[in-house]
Design goal:
The protein is built from 4 helices and no strands. The chain has about 80 residues and is mostly helical. It has one domain. It is elongated, with a radius of gyration of 22 Å. The termini are far apart. The mean pLDDT is about 85.
Length: about 80
Amino acid sequence: MLPRLQAEEQMAAVDSAALGAGSYNQDDAQRMMRRLRDTASGQNGERGRSRGRAANPGQLAAMGISVSVVPSQEALSGG
């Protein structure tokens, strides 16, 4: 996994250098800048990486992480 991340980071650095040097046409440069702004602001939408799903208690237990489920106040009071 680490080589994959390193490759992604290096590709991003190459893209940034090319963008800064004016090597991309205007439409591509604007699209790249919009994608960077969206990613930086957390608004990835369809274009960026989606946020992962939360692990369920079974998955956490498989990783050796204990989970305690505490009943809600409504359940405790019978409501």
